[in-house]
Amino acid sequence: MFIGFIEEINLCNYYSQSNLTFYTARDESYGLIPLESMENGTPVIAFEGGPSETILEGKTGYIIKNNEIDNFANKAINLIKDKALLREFSNQAREHVKNNFNLGKKILDLESLFKNDIMKHKHI
């Protein structure tokens, strides 16, 4: 089902009611859509590129080599047919985002980066 533009306030509802998110952008760096999707327990199938930084291959979704349309479709069909695997991916996706992409963790990561940089410059 293609809905069109969805207001941000309604995104979580759509993600959480979806089985999968197909992220077909091939030249977008990073991308928030895979993170938003996984945060709501929806695994992502995407082409290589930016999402490779956020999707755990074979755990929270799949990363497909560019132009491998049949592989993309087959991974989607397999996940939709295998409800237990889909549920496992869904749980892992939610946990992955919660543990690795929350604001508190990112602040700690940034602080650590600054501390390491300061320590490097002290020894020069």
Give an overview of the whole structure:
It is globular and about 55 Å long. The mean pLDDT is 89. 24% of the residues are buried. It has 124 residues and is mainly α. A 3-stranded parallel sheet has the order 1-2-3, with helices on both faces. Helix 2 (32-39) crosses helix 4. It has 5 helices and 3 strands; from the N terminus they run H-E-H-E-E-H-H-H. The chain has one domain: Rossmann fold.
Name of the CATH first level? Alpha Beta
Specify the number of helices.
5
Unreliable spans:
none
Sum up the overall morphology in one term.
Answer: globular
Helix content: 55-70%
**Roughly what fraction of the amino acids lie in strands?**
5-15%
Q: By CATH's scheme, which homologous superfamily applies?
A: Glycogen Phosphorylase B
Strand order of the largest sheet: 1-2-3
Question: Residue-averaged pLDDT, rounded?
Answer: 89
Query: How many extended strands?
Result: 3
The CATH topology name reads: Rossmann fold
Q: Let me know the largest β-sheet.
A: 3 strands, parallel
Distance between the termini: 59 Å
CATH architecture grouping: 3-Layer(aba) Sandwich
The class by helix and strand makeup works out as: mainly alpha
Q: List the domain count as a whole number.
A: 1
Order of helices and strands: HEHEEHHH
Radius of gyration: 17 Å
